[in-house]
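In the laboratory, one determines a bound structure by crystallizing the protein with its ligand and collecting diffraction data. In a computational setting the workflow is compressed into a single prediction: the sequence and the ligand go in, and a structural description comes out. We illustrate the idea with adenosine-5'-diphosphate.
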Amino acid sequence: MMKAIRRHLGWKIFLSYLIVLLVGFIVLATAAEFTAPTAFDRHLAAMSHMMMDDTSMMGEATDLELDLFTNFSNALNEALGLALAAAFTAAVVVSLIVSRQVVAPIRQMMFASQRIADGHYDERVDVPGEISGDGIDELGQLALSFNQMAAKLEYTEDMRRQLIGDVAHELRTPLTTIKGSMEGLMDGVLTADVHTFQQIHRQTDRLQRLIDDLQELSRVEAGAFEMNLLLREVQDLVEITKTTLIRQFEEKGVALNIELDPGLPLVYADEDRIGQVLLNLVGNALQYTPAGGVVTIRARQEREEVLISISDTGVGIADEHIDQIFTRFYRADSSRSRPAGGSGIGLTIAKHLTEAHGGRIWAESPGPDQGSTFTFTLPVAG
Ligand code: ADP
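The predicted complex, in structure-token form:
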């Protein structure tokens, strides 16, 4: 019995109600016992005063009083006993119902957490009370937090599953091409010339890039990288990117313009990491802009931030994709970027690196074929 009480919150609540009830009854009975004789005497004295004026009847009256008091006391005890029994039964029933109601959501959360532990991540609990209004108590808050936690776990699990699927898919495409080429060479269907070897080399290159990207992604997602924050000029950071990419811009026939506001403040930045963000954004702008297009890097100060934006006159991004492109492996148009070797990881890495600097990153585009602008911020060095 004691074990059951110790292990069940419902029993504990019920028992606490019972203790309160018992104390109440004891106090009630004792108070009635103590106050009844005085009340009775007072009542009887008033009655005698009204009904009996003859003093010769005093002795009889005292015996009568005693009889009357005994009867009154018995009647009072009987009424009190019956009332207490009825009240006790009602109180027990009500306490059972109330304690069950208090415990029910907690039990539901317990079962739900067990189901989540068994891999049923879609499990949720009912939130008692009004969610919209102020009428949500601590239990309701707990249920709400529980559901939020379950939703987060479900999302993480979905991402993990999706990641494994995506990695397998990304690895399969180049591997299938390499395998096909090798089989063609072995069967004599393909000639062992430079073209065939170049094709195989391109695919191994793609595999290499994917593995490098994945390694980098896992490092930035885990926050397992060191930041070497130093005071930097935005112009220097931009110039390094320009020097790295200018040949590719010229080869493709895309113009690269730089328009930085004069007097930009210094920023705290890890040159390599911000270089990586810039390289990724400007590289993407080049990749998604056809020959004859223009890519412009701009920078301006807004309050305590420096905003660096990369605009292009390229393929643009449809509204439905714009919020998703920072999600790993997401490609606005898979058929478009796949042959170019894009794995949809670059922007995810850029987002993590920007946020590690205390900045933000977002994309804007008026629509397909109308170009796009990627902007990231760096806090002004205070
Ligand atoms: P990827 O290696 O595929 O370019 P990213 O993470 O860098 O991976 O980009 C994710 C997706 O965002 C791209 O596949 C592309 O659909 C879209 N995207 C990125 N930059 C641009 C851009 N400048 N113009 C149009 N679409 C872009």
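Residues 32 and 250 are 104 Å apart (CA to CA). Keep in mind that any predicted model is a hypothesis to be tested, not a measurement.
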